[in-house]
Amino acid sequence: MSDNHDHLPATTQEEPIANPGLPPHTWRPTDVDERLAKRAERQVAGLFGLSSICVILFLVSYFTLKVGDNHTTFAGFGASTIALGSTLGAALLLIGIGIIQWARKLMGDHEIVEMRHPARSSDEDRQGTLDALALGLEESGIGRRPLVRNSLLGSVALLGLPAIVMLRDLGPLPGDKLYHTVWKPRMRVVRDVVGTPINIADLEIGDLVNAEPEIIFAVDEDGEHVLRGAELQTAKSKAAVILLRMDPQDLTPGKGRDNWAVDGIVCYSKICTHVGCPISLNERKTHHLLCPCHQSTFDLADSGKVVFGPAARALPQLPLMVDDEGFLMAQDDFNEPVGPSFWERG
Amino acid sequence: MGAWLTMSIDTSKVADTNSTTAATPKKPSKAGVVANWADERLGLGTVMKKNLRKVFPDHWSFMLGEIALWSFVVLLLSGVFLTLWFTPSMGEVEYQGSYSPLRGVEMSEAMASTLKLSFDVRGGLLMRQMHHWAALIFIASMMIHLLRVYFTGAFRKPRELNWVIGSLLLLLGTLEGFTGYSLPDDLLSGTGIRAADGFMKSMPVVGTYMSFFLFGGEFPGESIIPRLYTVHVLLIPGILLALIAAHMLLLVYHKHTQWPGPGRTEENVVGFPMLPVYAAKAGGFFFIVFGVAALMGGLLSINPIWKFGPYDPTKVTAGSQPDWYMGWPDGALRIMPGWESHFLGVTLSWNVFLPIIVLPGLMFTILMMLPFIEAWITGDKRDHHLLQRPRNAPTRTATMVALMTFYGLMWAAGGNDIIAIKLHLSINQITYFMRAAVFIGPVIAFFITRRWCISLQRHDEQKLLHGYETGIIMRSAEGGYSERHLPISDEAAYKLTARDRDEVWTPTTETDSNGIPAKGGRLDGVRSKLSALMYADNVQKPTAEELEAAHHHADHEHELQAPLEGHSADGHQFDGHHAVDGESLRGDH
């Protein structure tokens, strides 16, 4: 190892202590004792052997354990997954440990020295490259013929247009889609999931109901749903509402919203005005509604105004009325876009 | 002559030696035949000669990047398996698989095929969970690897571009994770996509169009899952692969950094050769990462979508959380005040746009610029291949700890509801606290870390000059007490001094022939102030004379103390270094 000292810089003022050079190599027990080396060899081979056993166990588990019908056994996701994972994991780990043990105990452990070279090219190489570049450019005539150069640059730049324009059909233009929902005048408010209409006589003070417009559940003459698939999802993502009946005295109707509530029953968009999560956590005592995603809190007794959190706008309110049978209906669609804000919203 | 010209003679089969036997080569070994075949076509001999015995230095912290690399391989393997069954479609089907609680429920094909993978494909759930765990390990190990590289100064010239590539890998890995956990179309992932739609809509001018083009119309539409699928299995992995290849090629070209120590210099690299030791260790480590991922996939449940149910835009579960690496922008989103501007007939949602679009972009820009900012402040143009201990770059270390504190507080804010529930605190108060803490916390962390590093430097200097504290208290004849210090080993002493002296950058006061100061004067003041902040308070290593004087002083102390002991001993017999017989005093060195 003494030859390594040749590369070391001499002690200077900068280096108060001279680089002592690489410490001498120390032999491992397995280097000097053939018995220990043999033992290490057996250990490594043993680890590889155990790995093979794990693979066999993996195959046995694969063909004997069923999936699907035992999803509640063993940590809630089935004996098959646990058995396959443990055996595969053990098989892999044993190979890994075996290889590393081999490297540590039996492979040569002499540290060797390699010299670094600066990342930069040599001056000759740089000059050669510059010369070649200059020659190439000269031969192309790109400097002498600006007309060719500029028209090429222009035409290639224009090729960017097809690349951008071709993405146009990714989706339709927004139009006024975000300004409307499926709510229509005199459309019944029905319960979420079951779709039954809501009679005001059935609502107690403090009741909170997740509701939808009737059309979400409507069927045509053939018994097919009117709204299906993506259309249905989009309709639900904007039209979902919550109803809350509170003591009419607690209610502070907003400006121009005097007749929007029916007997203390108010209806608001369920879609958070922050980034659009459906809001569902009701604080019964305070009429506050909390969004579980980012904790914006809205006061349902006061036009759905924001009382806390990152949302900036009140929840849009749906004006309610009641029909002859006592069922709740919408007077009209929301008078503003529901859900998160967007640039054109105004 | 004419005959020669018209006749074409095939000379290739004619022996070109004078030997009496045919020129047939010796029968080569099979491996030799293959190697020859390949080399004659690929010229591998030259490349491999250079690299087979390439030296890699050894240190546990160099393994962190390897974890990221190998978990990416696990992601590729398990991901390909998943694609064989997953159907990236939002078409509605009625689930009729093995999982009885959801039988008969309408859901998208994406969700139904994920349930099929989980309950009807043997090993499918294992692969799903392995894939998810490996993704978390991938991103976590990239972040820890990044911290290692930063704290040890391994990002300095010539490795700045590799730092930028690494930062891009982290950014793309995060996006890859988000697109991945959005694919099953369960309630939780749908909630994430719903929020992403809100994020996009907050962008000025283009936001609504971005949303409509990405979703193929109004949210949720029928296009988002197939599109995210293409991004997740083709676009981002392709870029990741290319960047990882570039990252590794640059690593090989620059040769790995190493810790300073006996025999290690800026001009060499000391360690084990690629073949066999490093190849075996790295290869073995691949199996270990793979094995750990398999064990986690088999034993630890993750993302049990069957418990969340299919996505329904009217439903959400309390405690909805993204994967942990998306937690910090989510926290910023939670603690942001509800600011929104309305002007000239348009709306700008600062409450969404700032925390989720601007802030992550800003943070990643700062991250990528770090090497260039430091190089500009220090004016250091040298190559650096020896690593620095974090304490020897106090301001740099403090900068990263400040950034980590910011990240950590934002991340904690992302769980403000969980904290409120578990600790029975008011979520409002936690949010108000966090609004201030994300600004004040990093500043406090910066100053504490910086001073801490400097005091550690002082401690090192003490050790170097006066030796280490033995814990042995000596009493002099006069009754005074002192602690016995003993010199550290030559190797340890060398390691402590094996670092550069810091030089505060000062603007050149040169003026040209007309007496006009050199260009760039305006920023010079800022630059020299920053350089002073960076370096001025650091403890520099002693000069040879200072070291000599200190040792001389220590020898003198020893002589004074020696007679007090009654018998000759240097104190090492108490700490087990050697017995009394083997003791040697400072002067013997």
From TrEMBL, chain A:
* SUPFAM superfamilies listed in its UniProt record: ISP domain
Q: Which UniProt keywords apply?
A: 2Fe-2S, Cell membrane, Disulfide bond, Electron transport, Iron, Iron-sulfur, Membrane, Metal-binding, Oxidoreductase, Respiratory chain, Transmembrane, Transmembrane helix, Transport
Chain positions covered by the region annotation Disordered = 1-28
On whether Ion transport is a keyword of this UniProt record, the answer is no
Q: Which coenzyme or cofactor does it need?
A: [2Fe-2S] cluster
Is this entry keyworded Metal-binding?
yes
What sections of the protein cross the membrane? 44-65, 77-100
Official protein name in the record = Cytochrome bc1 complex Rieske iron-sulfur subunit
Species per Swiss-Prot/TrEMBL record: Nocardioides szechwanensis
UniProtKB/TrEMBL annotation, chain B:
Q: Name one Pfam family in it.
A: Cytochrom_B_N_2
Q: What's the protein here called?
A: Cytochrome bc1 complex cytochrome b subunit
List the keywords (alphabetical). Cell membrane, Electron transport, Heme, Iron, Membrane, Metal-binding, Respiratory chain, Translocase, Transmembrane, Transmembrane helix, Transport
Q: Which GO terms describe its biological process?
A: respiratory electron transport chain
Q: What is its main location?
A: membrane
Q: Which EC number(s) are documented for this chain? A: 7.1.1.8
Look up keyword Transmembrane helix and say if it applies.
yes
**Compositional bias segments (type: Basic and acidic residues):** 567-589
Q: Name one GO molecular function term.
A: oxidoreductase activity
Cofactors (names): heme
Q: Where are the transmembrane segments?
A: 60-86, 130-151, 163-183, 229-253, 284-306, 352-373, 393-412, 432-449
Per the record, the domain of life is Bacteria
Organism of this sequence: Nocardioides szechwanensis
| All copies of domain Cytochrome b/b6 N-terminal region profile, residue ranges | 34-260
Q: Where in the cell is it found?
A: Cell membrane
Q: How is this protein situated with respect to the membrane?
A: Multi-pass membrane protein
**Where is the region Disordered?**
566-589
GO cellular component annotations of the record: plasma membrane
The record lists the catalysed reaction(s) as: a quinol + 2 Fe(III)-[cytochrome c](out) = a quinone + 2 Fe(II)-[cytochrome c](out) + 2 H(+)(out)
Xref: InterPro entries: Cyt_b/b6_N (IPR005797), Cytb/b6-like_sf (IPR027387), Di-haem_cyt_TM (IPR016174)
